[in-house]
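Batch manifest, entry 17 of 40.
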Amino acid sequence: MRILIYGLNYAPELTGTGKYTAEMAETLQQHGHEVRVVCAPPYYPEWKVAKGYSAWRNACETRNHVRIWRAPLWVPAHPSGLKRMVHLASFAMASLPALMKQTWWRPDVVMTIAPTMLNAPAALMLAKMTGASSWLHIQDFEVDAAFDLGLLKSERAGRIARFMERAILCRFDMVSTISDKMIERAMTKGVLPSRMFRLPNWVDISAIYPLQRVNKFRDELAIPESAKVVLYSGNMGSKQGIEVLAGAAHALAKREDITFVFCGNGATKADLQKSCEHLSNCRFIPLQPVERLNELLNLADIHVLPQRGDAADLVMPSKLTGMFASGRVVIAMARPGTELHNVVSSRGVVVPPENVDALAAAIEALVANPEQRAALGAEGRVFAELHLSPAWVLGRLDDKLRMLRGERAGLRTVERKDAKAGNPAAASPKAKAAVKLVEIEKID
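Output type: structure tokens
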């Protein structure tokens, strides 16, 4: 099957949507599909185009047997609400030529990744032109998040954006997203249940696993052997609510047996560092290469997953998968009834969002109870093994893609028979196109 993936982010980005899109593309290629990707040059989460790539030129490369077209985009050094919109629009426009080149390749499935929804109209157009099935995979509900998090504030703009989002969502043959709550939200926007598919983020449990030895990062960061490490690793942006960790570090500054480690980059990192610059219990390190990820995640005695209360079901933090797989206990900040709360509460600790005192108290309680830390960490590991392995998640995706392809192939065959029988409906351009595509498939 020929599968075209159209999305903003892709490898070699180490975190977020790009990581998962690349792993999905490479796995589908390994399953025998021919996969192509149209994306931007890597820039996230540093908000700076990576060395060796250009923000202003088109480029083409092959990475792990996947053919990739890189389209230009504008990357703001200091992203704000309006700048983010211009940033996303720049890619949507600049990527059109690369996307239209795929018309001659005639993909069987056109899959677009949200964010950004600005790519979706072009993806639908290409699918219609080529007779391909259209698939939208939602990592974030970016329209809701932009307004609920205050990145955009105009009520009129909100109404227009939500109307357009709803109109676009309902035109895809299949819409997938990463959690049950996000599926529910998509259905409130008009997507039929029969067109929904749950595609959670995954974690390579053979690459991320508990280590039973002294961690190498302790020496590198001069962390005393007696200190318990509270680790945050990932993007440092507005929707993470990461400022609460600085508050907890201040609240526990007198505890010499607790050290906070912040690993990552993002728009709010500078503010976080400034807030903690006089604290001896804090360490800051950049994002680590893939080969050191397991070592990093095992540095934690306690993983912390902050989340703004108003973002709880708009985004499902992808970093949670690695936390569980590491076998270390997780403290998450989430409201009751949200998916994050439901997932963590039975195999970790949940405290209210943006509550510094509750977070500090939960950290102290876990530091004082090594048996609870070990038991909850083991529960998280079991959950990762059963429900988050790539073989299970991406195997289901492969099955669904083949099923979708079979349904479309069946429709084309029926339309072709109708055309031969002189069915008046077959006189439509869509039916004629279907006949032509069936013939092409037989030749292939």
